[in-house]
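To the wet lab folks,

You asked to see what we're planning to order before we commit. Fair enough. Below is the target structure as tokens, and below that is the sequence we designed to fit it. If anything looks off to you, flag it before the synthesis order goes out.
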């Protein structure tokens, strides 16, 4: 059979497609008309920082942020200080979104309904108006901002102590990027200009990296999972998708991840005496399948779920078969299942986070783009002010359920758009043959993942007799960007 030609117009309105997919998955991407007057009122009468001794002026510290190259919705900044006992004090400043978005206002009601910013590759659908999320409430460089600071000390073994949370005035001294900062931290490239210009900033970031490594090692000793998935991002130029590139993890991305996991643990423990929202990943129901998967690779896991044993297996497999570790990670992630938000009342113990091997975990570090974090911020500020919990248990349960539902919907939107973008980028490679692995055998068909470049599609021809994990050579025979289809034939 002749190779099929790409079945889509030469130019698709990708932004319109993204919005339609958003609507199909229950989002209301347009802000209601009442938001405009609220933004105008905020501009005319911005909130003032309370004039109390409880609000600290920390603008003199060498705060910096590290984020994606194009990010402007900056939620957190970091700074560390050596203490006299060889411990290091870590301070993480979180944008005080609540100061600008009071409860039950139009902006808050929209955020409560949407619950998350959705990133589709061609257009972001922000939870908050961009005048706030990429402006007034973003911790942009050289701007004075309100913040909630999460502080803790880290010892040589990666243990955390001296935990506290307080309000402050902060100033981001250096807005940095993952790729350039990570390459410098790893010794692969020269320091980017902002880092090269300041020996103090160089020392600060190297100390942050050192502390983050200690936090990571401590978590892994307790069974946090070493997982590695290849995230694809479209390369879009003038509204045209010209390629797909792999998002690489590096020391800078790990630094921020390790700091945020520790900070979220601190906040969860600070809220133990009040009802709050926790972020959990339950113990896998499909542990038996994970055990089978391990056995197929000559490995043994205990009959009962054990994150430490699983992580030790993952470390061995990463060394033994680094090229396919991302595929193993993806399979493990699917078998563990997604995270969810739940209500935790005082005295109760939530199930914890299996993948991170932590018992105390919430989401508090991204209030510009996650509504659960805004709610948690309000709980913290009420506690600091000695006020009663601003949410009832029923309200928190409803928020948790909606955040879980919308987060799942956001993943589906992003996945559907990613397929369309990859289909566009790959249409010029129809007829090429790739190394692939079977990732799914379902009633809907047999699905394969190509190794280089990483992409998934349907094995439309030659699928009989194959099972998950089988390797094959797959020929790209069709792409359909309108529907997001990528079809292969066994070569």
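Sequence we intend to order:
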């Amino acid at each position: 059979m002749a190779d099929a030609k790409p079945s889509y117009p030469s130019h698709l309105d990708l932004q319109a497609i993204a919005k339609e997919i958003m609507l199909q998955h229950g989002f209301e991407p347009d802000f209601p008309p009442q938001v405009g007057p609220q933004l105008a009122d905020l501009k005319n009468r911005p909130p003032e920082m309370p004039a109390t001794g409880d609000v600290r002026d920390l603008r003199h510290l060498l705060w910096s942020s590290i984020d994606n190259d194009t990010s402007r919705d900056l939620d957190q900044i970091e700074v560390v200080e050596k203490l006299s006992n060889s411990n290091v004090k870590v301070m993480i400043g979180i944008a005080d979104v609540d100061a600008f978005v009071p409860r039950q206002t139009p902006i808050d009601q929209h955020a409560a309904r949407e619950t998350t910013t959705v990133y589709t590759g061609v257009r972001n659908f922000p939870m908050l108006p961009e005048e706030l999320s990429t402006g007034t409430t973003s911790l942009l460089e050289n701007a004075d901002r309100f913040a909630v600071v999460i502080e803790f000390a880290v010892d040589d073994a990666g243990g955390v102590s001296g935990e506290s949370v307080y309000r402050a005035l902060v100033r981001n001294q250096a807005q940095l990027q993952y790729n350039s900062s990570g390459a410098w931290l790893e010794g692969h490239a020269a320091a980017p200009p902002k880092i090269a210009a300041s020996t103090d900033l160089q020392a600060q970031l190297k100390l942050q990296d050192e502390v983050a490594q200690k936090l990571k090692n401590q978590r892994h000793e307790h069974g946090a999972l070493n997982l590695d998935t290849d995230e694809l991002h479209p390369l879009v130029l003038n509204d045209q998708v010209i390629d797909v590139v792999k998002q690489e993890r590096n020391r800078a991305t790990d630094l921020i991840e390790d700091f945020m996991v520790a900070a979220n643990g601190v906040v969860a423990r600070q809220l133990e005496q009040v009802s709050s929202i926790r972020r959990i990943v339950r113990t896998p129901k499909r542990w038996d399948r994970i055990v089978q998967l391990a056995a197929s690779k000559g490995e043994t896991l205990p009959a009962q779920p054990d994150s430490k044993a699983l992580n030790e297996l993952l470390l061995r497999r990463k060394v033994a078969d680094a090229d396919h570790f991302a595929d193993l990670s993806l399979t493990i992630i699917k078998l563990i299942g997604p995270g969810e938000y739940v209500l935790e009342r005082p005295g109760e113990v939530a199930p914890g986070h299996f993948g991170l091997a932590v018992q105390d975990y919430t989401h508090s570090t991204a209030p510009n783009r996650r509504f659960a974090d805004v709610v948690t911020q309000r709980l913290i500020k009420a506690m600091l002010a000695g006020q009663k919990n601003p949410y009832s248990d029923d309200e928190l349960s409803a928020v948790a359920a909606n955040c879980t539902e919308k987060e799942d919907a956001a993943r589906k939107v992003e996945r559907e758009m990613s397929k369309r973008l990859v289909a566009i980028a790959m249409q010029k490679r129809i007829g090429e043959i790739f190394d692939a692995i079977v990732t799914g055998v379902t009633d809907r068909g047999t699905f394969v993942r190509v190794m280089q470049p990483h992409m998934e599609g349907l094995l439309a021809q030659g699928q009989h007799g194959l099972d998950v994990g089988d390797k094959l050579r797959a020929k790209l025979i069709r792409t359909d960007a309108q529907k997001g289809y990528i079809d292969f034939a066994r070569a």
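Structural context that might help your review: The first strand starts at residue 55 and ends at 57. The chain has three domains: 1-30+417-491, 31-282+337-391, 287-335.

Thanks,
Computational group
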